[in-house]
């Protein structure tokens, strides 16, 4: 995978004191190859690595960072810059604002239109109107209506009218009823097709949209770039939406589209539910392409779910070397709340590869939870009192082997020792989550 490639590329630089022409060349070659594998066009990959090389050779390696770390930073900064630097925003000045959603069939236009409506209402606090302008498949109109019902956003549709007329009428309807944003879901074809292009061009001319968002399936890689170019040549769209980022995505499409078309990627969509739409953050995507773990998302996810008060309390207990099995039990419950443990851990840099060979299912935790649940509160508060006969009782009560109980208690003791040691060294951060 791309991340494995890059990991080994960066490894070559580890332990070397200076960035020189020689040690940079092979690393950049690996990076270039990795980018091409991730569907970045080879010309773009080449230009990219040339730019990184220039900066790397000019850079002085500070004592605090290794050449490897410096290269990671250079590569990441360069990727971020290439993808637009800052997160892009929607322009919603018109009254009403019209957003035209275009793209191939199956790219995710209808799903995205629903998500966008939800986003506009929930996050931007404006009232949206969805417009079903895909008149060729009756199922398409129905699909949008179902989505509209789910998110409680009205859907404008009209039988027997051409798409252009529907769009025009919808804008009038929005004016009359005070909808602030009109989202027009258009028809797509399986491939670029003149009739489709003409139709969206006509809609554009009729309703003068403030935003034209081109929807691309991130899984389609280099094809997405060619399609984007064809649409842009005809429509001059204002932004790109990358869908299906929850799949085995090739982040390379983001880079290639941005580089080729020079239009911002405005949203990424990762799932079929209405709340799985995200603003596109170039720095996060750079991290993702580099496979260094989606740390920011992890932190946000953790912050959302993690009870800050409890975290403080736990930290205090750890500082005073009072962390016991009652606390551990609470921690486990917190981790559970955050979702699938393996998915969470996979977001930590460098973890992805190690997790592959690890059988880390939730059953492992069920066993531990059963063991802890079979202890008395005093035993949890003071694990030292858990002697042989108590261990047998706990094993029986939890339905686990006595060896498993022993092993768990030993691991917990090791963990406590480690916390003590960290306390002595003066730095603790129990979940290894960066705080702001
Ligand atoms: P359209 O033809 O462009 O309107 O595409 P649809 O919105 O109908 O989506 C096509 C298929 O892709 C549907 O089965 C959607 O549920 C699915 N889909 C759309 N967006 C996403 C996404 O972000 N993630 C996943 N996993 N599936 C998606
Ligand atoms: Mg559709």
Fold and architecture overview:
It comes from Thermoflavifilum thermophilum. One of its GO terms (biological process) is SRP-dependent cotranslational protein targeting to membrane. This is Signal recognition particle protein. Belongs to the GTP-binding SRP family. SRP54 subfamily. Helices cover 57% and strands 9% of the residues. It folds into three domains: 2-82, Up-down Bundle (Four Helix Bundle (Hemerythrin (Met), subunit A)), CATH 1.20.120.140; 97-285, P-loop containing nucleotide triphosphate hydrolases (Rossmann fold), CATH 3.40.50.300; 299-425, 434 Repressor (Amino-terminal Domain) (Orthogonal Bundle), CATH 1.10.260.30. The protein has helices at residues 2-11, 21-37, 42-58, 67-82, 109-122, 138-151, 163-177, 194-207, 222-235, 252-261, 282-290, 295-305, 308-319, 325-337, 341-346, 351-356, 362-373, 377-381, 388-398, 402-425, and strands spanning 97-102, 128-133, 155-156, 181-186, 211-217, 239-243, 265-269, 277-279. An eight-stranded mixed beta sheet has the order 3-2-4-1-5-6-7-8, with helices on both faces. It has 436 residues and is of the alpha/beta class. It is built from 20 helices and eight strands. The protein is globular. Residues 292-303 and 427-436 have low confidence and may be disordered. Guanosine-5'-diphosphate binds at residues 103, 105-111, 188, 243-244, 246-247, 269-272. Magnesium ion (MG) binds next to helix 5.
Topology:
Elements: H1 2-11, H2 21-37, H3 42-58, H4 67-82, E1 97-102, H5 109-122, E2 128-133, H6 138-151, E3 155-156, H7 163-177, E4 181-186, H8 194-207, E5 211-217, H9 222-235, E6 239-243, H10 252-261, E7 265-269, E8 277-279, H11 282-290, H12 295-305, H13 308-319, H14 325-337, H15 341-346, H16 351-356, H17 362-373, H18 377-381, H19 388-398, H20 402-425
Parallel strand pairs: 1-4, 1-5, 2-3, 2-4, 5-6, 6-7
Antiparallel strand pairs: 7-8
The site of magnesium ion has 5 residues, from helix 5.
């Amino acid at each position: 995978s791309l991340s494995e490639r890059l990991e080994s590329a960066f490894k070559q630089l580890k332990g070397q004191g200076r960035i020189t022409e020689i040690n940079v060349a092979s690393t950049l070659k690996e990076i270039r190859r990795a980018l091409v594998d991730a569907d970045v066009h080879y010309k773009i990959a080449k230009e990219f690595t040339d730019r990184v090389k220039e900066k790397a050779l000019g850079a002085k390696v500070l004592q605090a960072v290794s050449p490897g770390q410096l290269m990671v930073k250079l590569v990441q900064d360069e990727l971020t810059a290439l993808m637009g630097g800052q997160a892009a925003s929607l322009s919603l000045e018109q009254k009403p604002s019209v957003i035209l959603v275009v793209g191939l069939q199956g790219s995710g236009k209808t799903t995205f239109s629903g998500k966008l409506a939800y986003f506009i209402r929930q996050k931007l606090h404006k009232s949206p109107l969805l417009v079903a302008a895909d008149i060729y498949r009756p199922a398409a109109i129905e699909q949008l209506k179902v989505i509209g019902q789910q998110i409680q956003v009205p859907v404008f549709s009209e039988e027997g009218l051409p798409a252009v007329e529907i769009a025009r009428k919808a804008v009038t309807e929005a004016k009359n009823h005070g909808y602030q944003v009109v989202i027009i879901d258009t028809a797509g074809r399986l491939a670029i097709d003149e009739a489709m292009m003409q139709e969206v061009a006509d809609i554009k001319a009729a309703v003068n949209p403030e935003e034209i968002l081109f929807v691309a399936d991130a899984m389609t890689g280099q094809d997405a770039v060619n399609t984007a170019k064809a649409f842009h040549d005809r429509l001059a769209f204002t932004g790109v939406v990358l869908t299906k980022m929850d799949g085995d995505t090739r982040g390379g499409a983001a880079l290639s589209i941005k580089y080729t078309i020079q239009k911002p990627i405005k949203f990424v969509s990762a799932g079929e539910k209405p709340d799985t739409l995200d603003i596109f953050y170039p720095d996060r995507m750079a991290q993702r392409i580099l496979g260094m773990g989606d740390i920011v998302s992890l932190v946000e996810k953790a912050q959302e779910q993690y009870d800050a008060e409890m975290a403080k309390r736990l930290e205090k207990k750890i500082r005073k070397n009072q962390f016991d099995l009652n606390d551990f039990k609470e921690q486990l419950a917190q981790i559970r709340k955050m979702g699938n443990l393996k998915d969470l851990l996979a977001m930590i840099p460098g973890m992805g590869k190690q997790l592959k060979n690890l059988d880390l299912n939730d059953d492992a935790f069920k066993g531990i939870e059963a063991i802890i649940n079979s202890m008395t509160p005093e035993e949890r508060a003071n694990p030292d009192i858990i002697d042989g006969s108590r261990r047998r009782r706990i094993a029986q009560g939890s339905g686990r082997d006595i060896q498993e109980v022993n092993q768990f208690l030993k691991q917990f003791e090791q963990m406590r020792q480690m916390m003590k040691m960290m306390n002595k060294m003066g730095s603790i951060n129990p979940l290894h989550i960066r705080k702001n």
